[in-house]
Amino acid sequence: DGAIRFENVRFGYDPAREILKGVSFEVPPGKSVAIVGPSGAGKSTISRLLFRFYDVKGGRITIDGQDISAVTQESVRAAIGIVPQDTVLFNDTIAYNIRYGRTDAGEEEVVRAAELAQIAGFIEQLPGGFGAMVGERGLKLSGGEKQRVAIARTILKAPPILVLDEATSALDTHTEQEIQSALDLVSKNRTTLTIAHRLSTIINCDEILVLKAGEIVERGSHRELLAMS
Ligand code: ADP
Ligand code: ADP
């Protein structure tokens, strides 16, 4: 089911500077929580800790009651799907990039995921951006298109936990709504942590946490936070 708990989490990249100063929150199974706050507040650091890119300096993070520092990085990451700000693609077809993480998936499933993410038209092509390949046979993808590849990959993987890091930030407004509905589809009934800069993308979240300088300073529903401001 994938409940996430941060219990008094402390962290700094350097010992001299604490970035997270005792952060506590819970994402109950199947619920969605968003973290908002100014740039540099520590939002992305929270997702990096959840992925065990770094280990906490104090407190603990649990998934389904299990301290993530006690299990392998691989098994933590296997439970979590992410739609990052910047997606690094492999030098292989878009279909390969979508299938990565669930190599057992059949062709139909890959096509279905690509359709939901609205990239079905070019899944047999190669992404551009690989040195000499640019301008030759590589397809030059926009940031938004790369994000859709990441969304398709996540739709296919269907992980118990989803982390959306500014998921729709690189998209133009025309496609943003369509992508948002694809994301709503993939996050429905899935434990979801959204790292957001804009309130417009998190209207459907069950709880919103406001992070400032490494501390949660407000929490509540979208409506409650609007009433406070
Ligand atoms: P946000 O996502 O809220 O913009 P981050 O979590 O990315 O904030 O960063 C929080 C703070 O940690 C910032 O002051 C940032 O400069 C610092 N920081 C982020 N990554 C590193 C790193 N790898 N090494 C040192 N400091 C970092
Ligand atoms: P984002 O989380 O927005 O994708 P980054 O992880 O690259 O971006 O960095 C977030 C912030 O942390 C930025 O302000 C960046 O300048 C800062 N930062 C990243 N790496 C380091 C580092 N090694 N030392 C200090 N600050 C860093």
TrEMBL record:
Per the record, the similarity remark reads: Belongs to the ABC transporter superfamily.
User: What region holds the ABC transporter domain?
Assistant: 4-229
What part of the full protein is here? 347 to 575 of 615
Q: What is its subcellular localisation?
A: Cell membrane
Name the source's superkingdom: Bacteria
Return the protein name: ATP-binding cassette domain-containing protein
- Organism of origin is Jiella pacifica
